[in-house]
């Protein structure tokens, strides 16, 4: 495990280092270039969100310009690769700006990231199909990644991210590894996630089955889907959201919680809350006024880069107005009261040894499951101990898809 002060970049700021490692990790499937990431972060001062935006945007614009030159000259593969990397860099640029949801830079980066990715999709073989999934009077953005353009029935892996990921990021974090192994893959953003929160400020909701059920309905209209072999994976906070959905949506035949989350609210409270303490703490958090708690949360934001980002981004994606209001909202995100026990399909729970955010949560989820279940722990020694195996995607998806292959073979 890398300790503070030993990070190759931003040794005083674990959150900036994690996002840097995330950008490095995107290189596993071509969504970044090691040298481009290193050159970019070398120009950034730790803890400077404006500098972070400026330098990542400069890299993104340079790579995008190269992509457009390449496509004009007929170099389709080169342009595809450059568009994909530009997608990552534009998304990364606005990551630390969410303290002001009206900052125009946020939406400028979002729009450019989406446009670059859709340009990449057209150049893939077969093309990746952008989709809009009907949902409660609006639509959820997603992408259908196919093995080929035939109607051959194949297992379908539905994948969504979590607190701060995107359907575009899932190109390499699940979709391409699946297509290589004979799976069709449907990625999407739900409420609170990248597309819906940027497009229409649609916030998160805890009852994620209300999101996944219309996605499964839509998936069954797509060509090449075996309705008996539909798997679901949620990443990061998705490690709560996907299990919550699978507890009620019984068309899910296999589930992956990457990494597992049993109680998001308790995780936000530091993880050391007993069932007896919880009602008292909930009452305090939900009180009309709690000046001491408000002051403590503000102090936490000042002293911890992780807390500062998590509380700021949390307000952005839940539509809440204060850190305490955000923490109160997260108390609804749990699998207690028998919800985890309702999951019936085979389930794979992943754990990262050095997880910054959900320490102990994967084991808590696993302990409550009564379905066929498997637990895989990724370690720092093997280079995969970061949250959601950031920096070790080829290793992680080999294990995930091997489990899924073996699970579906037994059906």
Automatic annotation (TrEMBL):
Pfam families: Abhydrolase_6. It comes from the Bacteria. Gene3D superfamilies: acylaminoacyl peptidase, alpha/beta hydrolase. Keywords: Hydrolase. GO terms for molecular function: hydrolase activity. The keyword Hydrolase applies. Residues 177-294 form the AB hydrolase-1 domain. PANTHER family: CONIDIAL PIGMENT BIOSYNTHESIS PROTEIN AYG1 (AFU_ORTHOLOGUE AFUA_2G17550), DIENELACTONE HYDROLASE DOMAIN-CONTAINING PROTEIN-RELATED. Belongs to the AB hydrolase superfamily. FUS2 hydrolase family. This is Alpha/beta hydrolase family protein. It comes from Terriglobus roseus.
């Amino acid at each position: 495990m890398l300790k503070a002060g030993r990070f190759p970049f931003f040794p005083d700021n674990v959150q900036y280092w994690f996002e840097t490692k995330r950008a490095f990790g995107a290189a596993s499937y071509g969504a970044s270039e090691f040298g481009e990431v290193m050159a970019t972060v070398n120009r950034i001062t730790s803890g400077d969100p404006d500098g972070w935006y400026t330098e990542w945007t400069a890299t993104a614009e340079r790579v995008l310009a190269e992509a457009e030159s390449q496509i004009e000259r007929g170099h389709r593969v080169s342009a595809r690769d450059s568009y994909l990397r530009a997608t990552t860099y534009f998304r990364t640029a606005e990551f630390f700006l969410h303290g002001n949801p009206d900052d125009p830079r946020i939406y400028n980066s979002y729009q450019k990231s989406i446009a670059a990715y859709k340009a990449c999709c057209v150049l893939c073989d077969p093309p990746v199909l952008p989709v809009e999934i009907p949902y409660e009077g609006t639509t959820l953005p997603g992408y259908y990644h196919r093995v080929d353009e035939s109607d051959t029935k194949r297992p379908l892996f539905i994948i969504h991210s979590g607190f701060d990921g995107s359907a575009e990021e899932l190109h390499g974090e699940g979709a391409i590894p699946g297509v290589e192994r004979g799976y069709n893959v449907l990625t999407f953003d739900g409420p609170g996630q990248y597309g819906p929160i940027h497009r229409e400020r649609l916030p998160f909701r805890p009852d994620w089955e209300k999101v996944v059920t219309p996605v499964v309905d839509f998936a069954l209209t797509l060509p090449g889907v075996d309705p008996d072999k539909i798997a679901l994976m949620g990443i990061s906070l998705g490690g709560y959201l996907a299990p919550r959905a699978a507890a009620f949506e019984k068309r899910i035949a296999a589930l992956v919680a990457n990494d597992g989350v049993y109680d998001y609210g308790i995780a936000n409270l530091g993880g050391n809350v007993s069932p007896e303490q919880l009602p008292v703490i909930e009452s305090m958090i939900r009180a009309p006024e709690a000046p001491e708690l408000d002051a403590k949360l503000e102090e936490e934001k000042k002293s911890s880069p992780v807390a500062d980002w998590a509380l700021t981004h949390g307000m952005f994606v839940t539509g809440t107005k204060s850190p305490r209001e955000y923490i109160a909202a997260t108390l609804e995100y749990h699998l207690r009261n028998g919800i985890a026990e309702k999951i019936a399909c085979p389930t794979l729970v992943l754990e990262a040894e050095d997880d910054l955010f959900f320490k102990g949560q994967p084991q808590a989820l696993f302990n409550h499951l009564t379905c066929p279940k498997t637990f895989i722990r990724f370690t720092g020694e093997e280079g995969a101990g970061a949250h959601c195996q950031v920096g070790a995607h080829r290793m992680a998806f080999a294990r995930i898809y091997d489990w899924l292959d073996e699970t579906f073979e037994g059906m």
